[in-house]
Design brief:
Strand order of the largest sheet: 1-6
Distance between the termini: 55 Å
Largest sheet: 2 strands, antiparallel
Shape: globular
Radius of gyration: 25 Å
Strand content: under 5%
Number of strands: 6
Structural class: mainly alpha
Length: 566
């Protein structure tokens, strides 16, 4: 009888301890949303990944943001604001982009290991999710305005159309996004260049007049410190865009001696490099709005479709309207597939830690879109400047704290040299990054609402950046890096050499093979466990972080050879 049972189990082995829903298990759609992107999945070239990432910055919110800054604070202060914000975004984006591309991790996973801890980064998932649905709503409003101008579609219905149109693309994941960005790029490039080309011939003196523009609110054409600070705050609301760039950069292939130069260039261009194009678009959008101001009025000049039409009229005549509408619609589809995709990733990360469940990334697309649609119907476009100015105080505190950890703490030895993102090795909260962000954003928000006077209000984002930059290393130094690792990782320590990190190991829970960086040693399961199964385990009590004796648990993973470096 025993032999019969044994033979039956060999033919019909017991099911795995956890099986994922069909959509969650399909990585062609899931895109490793909650875990490390393995080398076997990173099949795109550096240029392909960079091209896809840069395709996502085709949005026209830059036009509206730039026009709003210059109209409010005048050209001189607005110009300085846009360039200063771009410099800050570029510098903080460099280490983050390189970390995401090198380790195959998205922004949330990098944040976990860069000073925030496993649950500490949950708050940043919400910050990032809010970035994606705020900007989806903003971009969707611009697209609805274009459809209203082109075919008379009521904007309320346009909001719904702009929301529904991205779902089939985002549902299919990175493969579909890469194709959409590549196919639409020629149309976008032509539409972006043509209005400025027309004005160069038809209104050559417009740039000179624009440079002395004093705005529409009486700011004047001279430099004003208050206007500069407030304008920089609005422009810095885009700092979290590096997270969306990271969602693509995590699929960058491994850097080798052969592709090193192309890899570095691609990461720089598609990571922090987006802001160079973004700043140019903000200034260009402000210029187009200035040229169209007299013809269409201030309200419509701030809507990118109207200045586009006015700029194209001298050459295209009656065709200017449909041409401008096609350009706007294509641009907004390109960015909103990215907003919806990144939003689904951030919501997945948030809810997996709170609920210990993961139905699949694709279901969170709908949550993100419902929130974005609600914001559109509430006409958030009308409160653009105030909303973005407030958001930037939180966004810059988060991003600066992460950058400070990557640049300062890791080099000083207060933070591990690698990015540890797995729950099994992390404290719930690391006060270095999380504490720095909370303090910096709280103080800057109080300043933003005028508690410390006019200048502090205007420079609240600078306060957020400065405090985060100082506090993150200071707390890491004061705590001697204690809260980065709850226990050593037996295969990722600084004195360990791994035979082959691309070798796969079967998770003891879901029985799926994963590459070594996605695997932890689990004493409860008595074997290796993948990072997602580890995240979803609600009953283990985190016993892996401390043995009953108080000593760290160190269980070497099977088939992995490790050796101490002398």
């Amino acid at each position: 009888m025993t032999d019969t049972v044994a033979r039956t189990e060999e033919v019909n082995p017991p099911p795995p301890q956890r099986s994922y829903a069909k959509l969650a298990a399909d990585e062609s759609r899931e895109d490793y949303s909650l875990r490390y992107a393995p080398h076997s999945f990173r099949r795109w070239s550096p240029s392909m990944v960079a091209g896809t990432a840069l395709g996502g910055i085709a949005y026209l919110a830059d036009f509206a943001i730039g026009a709003s800054i210059v109209f409010t604070y005048g050209f001189t202060s607005g110009f300085a604001s846009i360039l200063t914000a771009a410099a800050i975004i570029f510098l903080t984006g460099i280490p983050i982009a390189r970390a995401c591309a090198k380790y195959g991790l998205d922004m949330d996973l990098v944040t976990r290991g860069a000073g925030f801890g496993y649950f500490g980064s949950t708050l940043t998932s919400l910050i990032y999710a809010s970035f994606t649905f705020i900007f989806f709503a903003l971009e969707g409003s611009i697209m609805a305005q274009a459809m209203h101008q082109a075919v008379g579609l009521p904007v309320e219905i346009g909001y719904l159309v702009t929301t529904l149109i991205v779902i089939p693309i985002v549902f299919r994941g990175m493969g579909a996004l890469a194709k959409v960005q590549a196919w639409t790029q020629p149309v976008w490039i032509i539409g972006m260049i043509l209005p400025f080309l027309v004005l160069a011939f038809e209104a050559p003196d417009a740039w000179g007049a624009f440079a002395s523009f004093g705005g529409t609110e009486g700011a004047g054409s001279g430099f004003d410190w208050i206007g500069f600070g407030l304008g920089t705050g609005v422009a810095l609301s885009l700092i979290a865009q590096i997270g969306e760039q990271a969602d693509y950069l995590r699929f960058m292939p491994a850097k080798t001696a052969t592709n090193k130069r192309r890899w570095n260039l691609a990461v720089l261009a598609a990571g922090p490099g987006w802001v160079i194009i973004g700043a140019a678009k903000q200034l260009g959008g402000a210029f187009l709005a200035f040229v169209a101001l007299e013809a269409v009025g201030k309200t419509h000049a701030l809507e990118p479709i109207a200045p586009q039409i006015e700029a194209l009229k001298p050459w295209l005549g009656s065709v200017a309207l449909p041409a401008a509408a096609v350009f706007v619609i294509v641009s907004q589809i390109k960015i909103n597939v990215t907003n919806a995709y990144s939003g689904s990733l951030s919501w997945s990360n948030f809810f997996s830690r709170i609920t210990h469940k993961h139905p699949g990334r694709v279901w969170y697309i709908f949550l993100n879109l419902v929130i974005a649609l609600t914001l559109m119907e509430m006409n958030m476009f009308a409160a653009l400047g105030k909303l973005l100015g407030f958001y930037s105080n939180v966004g810059i505190a988060w991003i600066t704290a992460v950058a400070a950890d990557l640049v300062i703490n890791k080099r000083m030895g207060w933070s591990p040299k690698y990015i540890e993102f797995k729950r099994a090795y992390l404290y719930a909260v690391n006060p270095a990054g999380f504490g720095a962000m909370v303090v910096a954003s709280t103080v800057s928000i109080l300043a933003f609402f005028g508690l410390f006077g006019d200048y502090a209000e205007a420079f609240s984002t600078f306060i957020a950046a400065g405090l985060a930059l100082i506090l993150c290393p200071l707390i890491a130094w004061a705590t001697k890096g204690k809260y980065y690792l709850a226990r050593p990782n037996p295969v990722n320590g600084p004195d360990v050499v791994v035979e082959d990190e691309t070798a796969t190991h079967d998770c003891a829970v879901c029985e799926t093979a994963y590459e070594l960086p996605d695997i932890a040693d689990c004493p409860v399961r008595n074997g290796p466990i993948c990072s997602l199964c580890c995240s979803l385990d609600a009953d283990c009590g985190d016993v892996c972080r401390k043995a009953p004796s108080g000593e760290p648990v160190l269980m070497p993973l099977p088939t992995v050879r490790t050796a101490t470096v002398s």
